[in-house]
Design goal:
By secondary structure, the chain is mainly alpha-helical. A two-stranded antiparallel ribbon has the order 1-2. Strand 1 and strand 2 form a beta hairpin. Helix 3 runs parallel beside helix 15 and helix 9 packs across helix 11. The protein starts with a helix and ends in a 7-residue tail after the last helix.
Length: 350
């Protein structure tokens, strides 16, 4: 499953980004470059879906794919999908990772997962007359949320717990058997301790990386399908909104932009490097569909850059810059590609 994820990333990146780019994408590095890669290569769903991925583990998997003939390395750094790699993608029979929505939801999925896990542990333990137990989630806010949920259901907890079981069963029956099995064996409650990642890997004869991706995807799936027909699961979403990927520093810069300050004015006010402020501008352009690029570039300039990127079929800034004879600097190129995600999709310039 993790190899499928890697092959998908490598296919979409088309040999234009290094392994480091994949690492930053999957771990959710909050930088304008990583965000731009995620948007530009249509990989934003995979942003931050494996935040605890270790670089050594990723390098090992890349090495396995290379030795297996699924990828080749160009210039010793850029992975490219081979014919066997494309075949491996086509013949993949495991769980499809279609529920991931990392760029929009990776932060709220974390809270949703904690709420659900602690809710299951608490309700099933109390129903089993186990009043003293160590909570599997130590976040005080999540614990308080579960306590409020318990207080609201205290008089009918047995019925409500069965309803939660029914909701989960309906959804799990629509999932791949591997996903359903791993999720079920992972649950803790009612006197039963869920299996660790290592134990799950042995039980299902897959890698620990596969287990982690499978579990993460299940929570995205549960979050995605919960609606009015699943009231208890839906309650775990209460108060959770979308994720803002603009960093706090970028937000302060954006505040000045909205007030009409120029780039140089903001550099002086914030006492930051101009390149840092430019990064903030690109970040804002990536996530805000109403972003006004006109203070920095004319529409004709943006269109020219996008047309060249389309003609070359690349998002490599160096190639685009060379094709335009150095007419635009890298900030202008990055900004044009960023605003294109919003303003030019309908014209299919990307």
């Amino acid at each position: 499953m993790f190899q499928y994820l890697l092959l998908t990333c490598i296919e979409k990146l088309r040999g234009e980004r290094t392994v480091s780019g994949i690492f930053h994408l999957l771990t959710g590095k909050r930088s304008s470059q990583t965000m731009q890669d995620a948007k530009g290569y249509r990989l934003d769903n995979y942003f931050a879906v494996y935040t605890d991925l270790e670089r050594e583990s990723l390098d090992n998997e890349i090495g396995n794919l290379e030795r297996g003939g699924c990828i080749r390395m160009e210039n010793d750094a850029y992975p490219v999908l081979t014919v066997p790699g494309k075949k491996a993608l086509e013949e993949y029979a495991g769980p499809l990772l279609t529920a991931f929505d990392g760029m929009a939801k990776h932060t709220i999925i974390h809270v949703f997962r904690q709420r659900l896990n602690l809710l299951i542990q608490t309700w099933t333990n109390i129903n089993a007359s186990i009043s003293s137990f160590v909570p599997i989630v130590d976040d005080p806010e999540v614990q308080q949320w579960v306590k409020r949920m318990y207080a609201g259901q205290k008089g009918k907890l047995n019925r409500t717990t069965h309803d939660l079981f029914d909701e989960l069963q309906v959804i799990l029956n629509t999932c791949h058997s591997l996903e359903a099995g791993i999720f079920t064996y992972r649950m803790t409650g009612g006197g039963v301790i869920g299996l660790t990642v290592e134990q799950l890997a042995r039980e299902f004869k897959i890698t620990e990386m596969d287990v982690r991706i499978c579990l993460e995807h299940m929570y995205y799936r549960l979050y995605q399908v919960t609606e009015e027909s699943f009231p208890i699961l839906s309650s775990c979403k209460t108060g959770l909104g979308g994720t803002s990927l603009v960093t706090e520093s970028a937000k302060r810069t954006y505040h000045y932009l909205e007030q009409g300050y120029s780039l140089d004015d903001i550099v002086s006010l914030r006492r930051l490097k101009k390149s840092t402020i430019q990064d903030h501008v690109v970040e804002a352009a990536l996530v805000d569909s109403s972003f006004r690029f006109e203070p920095f570039m004319r529409k004709a300039e943006v269109e020219e850059i996008i047309m060249v990127a389309q003609r070359l079929d690349t998002k490599r800034l160096k190639r685009i810059k060379e094709a335009l004879d150095g007419k635009y600097d890298y900030f202008q190129l990055r900004l044009a590609l960023a605003v294109a995600q919003h303003f030019y999709k309908e014209r299919k310039l990307l």
